[in-house]
Design a protein that fits this description.
By secondary structure, the chain is α/β, with parallel strands linked by helices. The protein folds into two domains: 2-157 and 340-356, Rossmann fold (3-Layer(aba) Sandwich), CATH 3.40.50; 167-337, Glycogen Phosphorylase B (Rossmann fold, 3-Layer(aba) Sandwich), CATH 3.40.50.2000. Helices cover 43% and strands 16% of the residues. It is globular and about 65 Å long.
């Protein structure tokens, strides 16, 4: 099968899809806008870069001719765009079929709310797609506001050969570690996590906070820690290579994802933590309540609420057996629902179903 992915080349998610398909013996290419190009990923997957010759959204129209040429030369069996508000819209303009679109989050939760033209772009892209995919049921429901087509759910699972328990990294620690792996932005509730940790400190001084990742608000969060007098208890690791993420998660006693926006459409970080046997506390936004079993593998708390976040974290800090039980149930939960190999294979199965039907237009 020849598969052309039209998506951000820098994204680890794009690269995971492409690598999976390649390892399954399929001929895969990635097409990406020039500002999303990754030389490192292109070394593994042949990647075409589209030049943006005009400013803003006008650049979409200037790239159509380039994309048509690539499609004509490669002649894929499946053309699959990711992110409907940009790649999905441009892909729709070339009128190639069979055409898939995967929605990612902000492209359906926020982009169409920001003006009539944006909404029309989303509706147009979805109208031209033969198949529309979502990583969660809640996002599929949101996408349904702009199309009446069925939307299969294809969860973005995790590689269980990489994300697995390493309990020895947690044993014999003098302090319990609360942690997260996210971009440093208010979208992911990092400020709320710091404030919750501050509340915890007076009652549980033998705890520390590890924030893995980087982003535009790092200095702001570091200053917040200094203001609250907890800087010596908080570690900012900066961005770490993806292969090292499981080791960082396995050093954590509890994992937190207090995101603030519904565009947190799936919650892969929470799934990764559960796969490592770490109990999680997440906020009630987007797909997070879908991937965490409240009271079983972790807790779901109201968003933007450091008090409730701190309360949930304290329940886990104060009960070692609860942490162990939730961790074990988290492993089983992910093995049953979010094994990346099973989830990715479901996408290939969809491709095969489409091709078996012959011409879709």
């Amino acid at each position: 099968m020849k598969i052309l992915l039209f998506a951000p080349g820098k994204s680890i998610h794009t690269h995971k899809w492409a690598t999976f398909f390649k390892n399954k013996g399929h001929e895969v290419r990635v097409v990406t806008f020039s500002d999303h190009y990754s030389e490192e990923n292109a070394e593994e997957i042949e990647t075409y870069s589209l030049k943006k010759r005009l400013p803003g959204k006008l650049s979409y129209f200037s790239s159509v001719g380039q994309l048509k040429k690539i499609l004509s030369d490669f002649q894929p069996d499946i053309f699959h765009a990711h992110y409907v508000s940009s790649y999905g819209f441009v892909g729709a303009l070339v009128n190639f079929h069979p055409y898939y679109i995967s929605v990612w989050g902000r492209d359906v939760y926020q982009f169409p709310q920001q003006g009539k033209i944006n909404k029309q772009m989303v509706e147009y892209g979805l109208r031209k797609a033969d198949v529309i995919c979502s990583t969660s049921h809640v996002m599929a429901k949101e996408t349904g506001k702009y199309t009446n087509k069925p939307i299969p759910v294809t969860p973005f699972g995790v590689d269980l050969t990489k994300f697995k328990p390493a309990f020895e990294l947690r044993e014999n620690q003098d302090e319990l570690t609360i942690g997260t792996v996210k971009a440093l932005s208010d979208k992911y509730g990092i400020g709320d996590l710091i404030k919750a940790f501050h509340r915890i400190q007076s009652k549980h001084p033998n705890t520390k906070l590890m924030i893995v990742g980087d982003g535009p608000q790092r200095e702001e969060y570091e200053e917040l820690c200094r203001t609250l007098g907890i800087a010596q208890k908080v570690t900012f690791t900066g961005k770490v290579p993806n292969p090292e993420v499981p080791n960082y998660i396995n050093k954590m006693s509890i994992f937190a994802v207090p995101s603030t926006e519904d565009s947190e459409s799936f919650g892969v970080a929470a799934v990764e933590a559960q796969a490592c046997g770490v109990p999680v506390v997440v906020s009630n936004v987007g797909g997070l309540p879908e991937v965490v079993k409240n009271g079983v593998t972790g807790y779901v708390v109201p968003k933007e609420n450091p008090v409730e976040l701190a309360n949930a974290l304290c329940k886990l800090l104060e009960n070692e057996q609860l942490r162990k039980d939730m961790g074990q149930k988290g492993i089983a939960h992910v093995e049953g629902q979010y094994n990346w190999l099973d989830n990715a294979q479901s996408m290939l199965d969809l491709y095969e179903q489409t091709l078996s039907k012959g011409s879709v237009r």
